[in-house]
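Example record

Each entry pairs one chain with its bound ligand, NDP.
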Amino acid sequence: MNDYIQSVLSEVRAKNQGESEFLQAVHEVYSTLGPVIERHPEYRAARILEQMAEPERVVIFKVPWVDDSGEVRVNRGIRVQMNSAIGPYKGGLRFHPSVRLGLLKFLAFEQVYKNALTTLPMGGGKGGSDFDPKGKSDAEVRRFCQSFMTELYRHIGQFSDIPAGDIGVGSREIGYLFGQYKRITGEFAAGVITGKGHGWGGSQIRPEATGYGSVYFAQEMLATRDDSLSGKTCLISGSGNVAQYTAEALIKLGAKPVTLSDSSGFIYDKDGIDGEKLAWVMDLKNKRRGRIAEYAEQFPGATYAPSGAPDHNPLWDIPADCAFPSATQNEISGKDAANLLSNGVIAVAEGANMPTSPEGVELLLGAGVLYGPGKAANAGGVAVSGLEMSQASQRQQWSREQVDEELRGIMRAIHEQAWSAAQEYGHPGNYLMGANIAGFRKVADAMLDESAV
Ligand code: NDP
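Structure tokens for the complex follow.
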């Protein structure tokens, strides 16, 4: 890493103390940009790295709501508007007790590069709350969402900032949020939020897009080695939106997903999770809102293990060809990556954001595994959100086939950009470096064109 980047990183560390995920994300991107900064002194002159590490704006607000027993509860809401050089801020909302400013800054920072890679004109943002929808009644979730939007509505808009879902924010929450926006403003602004239901302005394939996209990205990576997903045994973590549709796409392509998890533990089904079993999981998670442990009671061939190991997750120690981490950040430790490698994994496509720790990434790259970083592999979700915005502007709805075809094309284009940038800068096959460089250059050039100072 060159001296200039070292000095930027130490400045970022000093300014953002305690924000460990944000610091990890900035380090992961900037440590790969040395060759670009050397070739393009104009980025250094305009202090583009320093500027990109600073949000353009952060809004923090209280979210008071009333629970079912009549008690008043207060949560914190945050929206990080990170970078608008290539388009309006775009990025999801996360409702989870772990949500803090630093966590959302990491997600917003990643979103800037990811959105640039989609080829669509979207800047980066992220938001959320420390509210935990788990264990809450529908009425409590509704009251919380309405209170959250009562403040957020004044900071968003179809040409300024367009939120969507993320952990803890699925179609139910998007419905309540959009309904409240409509109630307050008196406008049916279909372009102000994405992930809407198909009957009221949502896009076909949006629920599927992140999971399908990460599988399409894995297909592209495997194709560079004349290989495919057909017949491959695959590990998936999580059992939410991304995990479910990753499993669905893998089943369609003839692969065999064998695991799913939630924050309590994971299931291993050595016979494979087929379409029928997956439909049962979708009902369990999306309607009955149950725990993944119930899978092993329903399907006797499967086993369940609670989580608990401090430094590793036994899910990643199951022999498999491919891994699709689709739950949360830093869920593959160095030890997990070593276990994946010793069991012969050949490809890792990140459905989640930053699911692999820095030690894990180093091991996977060092071993020459096909490693698709989240900002490339999971960009399908925001890409179809971009297509939902296009459909809202046109006042049209495209067919399922059309959106899926667009998604495939976008995932191919993301792969191509990451592949070519890695090649151009002397690290062929290093998708992490390629994705970082390609995303950075697009945003940095726009910042220069718009006059960064
Ligand atoms: P969901 O809320 O639908 O599902 C999240 C899943 O991950 C659940 O099974 C949840 O278990 C599990 N999980 C969450 N936190 C933890 C934790 N700390 N430890 C273990 N398991 C955990 O979210 P999504 O599927 O939408 O998101 C999953 C990942 O994909 C996130 O990293 C998100 O940022 C990323 N992503 C999502 C996109 C989207 O379109 N939805 C787009 C791009 C990236 P439990 O129910 O027990 O909490």
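Residues 1-54+429-453 form a domain with the Glutamate Dehydrogenase; Chain A, domain 3 fold (CATH 1.10.285.10).
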